[in-house]
Amino acid sequence: MTNSKLTLETDYFSVHALCDGVYAVTAKPGQGTWSNAGFVDLGEELLVFDSHGTPTAGAELRKIAESMTGKKVKYLVNSHYHGDHVFGNQAFNDTVIISTAETQKLCTEKHRLGNLKTEEKVMQQYLLKLKNQIRETEETIKKKSLYKQFDETTRLLADLPRLKLVLPTLLFEQKLTIIGSKRTVELSCLGGGHTPSDTFMYLPADKIVFTGDLVTENLHLPIYDPREFVSILETIKHMDIDTVVPGHGNVGNKDLCNTLADYIKFLIRKAKEAHYRELSLPEFITGYELYEEYKDWGGINGIQTNLSSIFNYYSNDVSRKKQR
Length: 324
Hints:
By secondary structure, the chain is α/β, with parallel strands linked by helices. It has helices at 55-69, 83-86, 101-110, 116-136, 140-159, 226-237, 255-276, 281-286, 304-323, and strands spanning 5-9, 13-19, 22-27, 37-41, 46-49, 73-77, 96-100, 170-172, 175-179, 184-189, 199-203, 208-210, 243-245. The model has no long low-confidence stretch (mean pLDDT 94). The relative contact order is 0.12. The chain starts with a strand and ends with a helix.
């Protein structure tokens, strides 16, 4: 098990010391933090992993990291392009921001900021949609997830007038090693499982990995490529690791990787069975019974979105086989 020790509480997050100079930052629900982060003492300066979901939370993250260590942030790593991991970037605009080229491209394409009034109107409409979903939903777990999404989006709306898109400036493809006087950090991208490009950070001497959303706890997170996702998780599982910091949820160990890999394999198996039986997508979704171990998992769309995406993913395989 991890030796995580709660060190500091703020309104936005909890800071856990994992070892001397390595800290996990776990998000508090509904505060605009939205996702986990971390910071690492390299020796002369700091490296921060992910920047949270709002400029306010990002600024709080930097302030706490620098005040706790007495050192300045030199590097910020963006694990992937999703806003809950990069919308705090502007608090680090004078640092070296690192990501893959694909993540930088997706940030540029997906997070274009238009007219403020228009953006505010779109977000207000989304909040209204969430409010209606909360009212209509009877499932306790789903309702809780919707409330959290509503609170997080409300925080982002409040920060919208000051939100600026700050892009990564140092790009890599598969691996980047940063050598500090105190420790070495290895950044790796083995492709895309959660998004088209997912970076994780490994501290070999400390046996710690920060995974971004390649690992989450009890969450129906979006799945971009199920086969590649499982492959990446298998690689992480075979590394010399004692502590896993997920993108969402509590700090843990390799059990987090095992649980998520089993979940994705389960979805893959069910989707393949459905294709073998020549079921349509509606028949597959309607006839599905949630296994006991996944019934309490969070996520505003539950398991249905992942069932659909993986069913469609394997539809392409079926189509190719029929064309041969």
